[in-house]
Design a protein that fits this description.
336 residues; alpha/beta; Beta Polymerase, domain 2; Rossmann fold; elongated
């Protein structure tokens, strides 16, 4: 992006993101929250008295106000020293934006248009966290404060005037969205997780975060059931109660991965009868699958395996890419 002058008081952005740099470099540049005050003080000693540090897995960057000719070099030196590297080691992997280009970049970051996953909701929260740390260090105000407040306004417009954040873009978020589509508010729902595993726990955590009211963990080993339940702050039960717990579950998450189906079509049919045919949403997060595919032929039973969820994710990402065009128009209006 071209550098140019802009009457915003010398806004400058120096950093490395997922497009400009390697993951190895970003790992070295990463600034832990506890280290941000010290890093800001390093910038202050270097003559940069207004700055925000944004440090995530996607990017490590400094958003600052400094209109001197060597501002980029001084900020780059601070980043290099933090990573125990030389400034020349960062050549070709960092970007510098000034003036209007910097404003557009800050707005795009806050609106999650410069992320690996376009439209991810946590980005504006990360920006606000960096903003708060800068305020606490008395490193924010004036033009920088104005730009950040305007960026939040642009991000809000992007959320309300486009559909960029409406479709799920991860397996876990797809499961949550489908559960909500079927059951509405999850705080009135009961869930059951069979087994454990990384994917199963990730989906369970997302369901709990989305408001799932009750969750019971069932595992072949009761010690594992207790450990997982403690981690997820929920209940656990014995494998012997699988059939009765199945009938109580609005959402069933299977993540055992055994050699045979742990949940058969007959079991689900019986559970639906006891539920008076209140629908069940079943997620098979196991490889090989835990739930007999014939379950999908039962009325009021909605079974999604990892392949099905991946298709939902791909559709969500395509939709977000399309909506990004609308979002960029909003950002450019806000920049103007």
């Amino acid at each position: 992006m071209a550098e140019n002058s802009f009457p915003i008081g010398g806004l400058i952005v120096v950093g490395a993101n997922h497009r400009s740099s390697s993951l190895m470099l970003r790992d070295r540049l990463f600034v832990e929250d506890g280290d941000v005050p010290g890093f800001l003080e390093k910038l202050r000693r270097a003559g940069v008295d207004k700055a925000v540090v944004l440090s995530t897995c996607d990017r490590v960057e400094v958003q600052a106000v400094d209109d001197s000719a060597d501002a980029a070099a001084r900020i780059t030196l601070a980043l290099a020293e933090h990573a125990a590297m030389k400034p020349e080691d960062l050549e070709g992997q960092i970007y510098v934006h000034r003036g209007e280009g910097a404003v557009r970049h800050v707005f795009a970051v806050a609106a999650s248009l410069d992320s690996q996953v376009i439209g991810e909701t946590q980005v504006v929260g990360q920006v606000k966290a960096g903003h708060r740390l800068a305020r606490e260090a008395c490193m924010c105000g004036g033009a920088l404060e104005s730009v950040l407040q305007a960026a939040y306004g642009a991000a809000k417009r992007v959320r309300t005037e486009s559909a960029i954040g409406e479709r799920p873009v991860s397996i876990a978020s797809a499961a949550v969205q489908l559960a909500r589509d079927l059951h509405g508010d999850l705080d009135r729902c009961a869930g059951m997780m069979l087994g454990g595993g990384e994917m199963g726990e990730l989906v369970a955590e997302q369901l709990r975060a989305a408001g799932l009211g009750q969750l019971t963990v069932i595992h072949a080993k009761e010690s594992r059931a207790r450990a997982i339940a403690l981690k997820l702050d929920c209940h656990w039960a014995s494998l012997d109660t699988l059939a009765s717990d199945l009938a109580k579950a609005d959402i069933v998450l299977a993540a055992q991965g055994g050699r045979r189906h742990a949940v058969s079509a007959d079991m689900v049919r019986s559970a639906l009868a006891k539920r008076r045919h209140k629908p069940m949403f079943l997620i098979d997060a196991a490889i090989p699958g835990d739930i007999e595919p014939a379950v999908n032929r039962l009325e009021e039973a909605f079974l999604y395996d990892l392949g099905d969820l991946e298709q939902v994710v791909l559709a969500g990402r395509a939709t977000r890419e399309e909506e990004a065009q609308t979002a960029w128009r909003i950002v450019d209006e806000a920049v103007a």
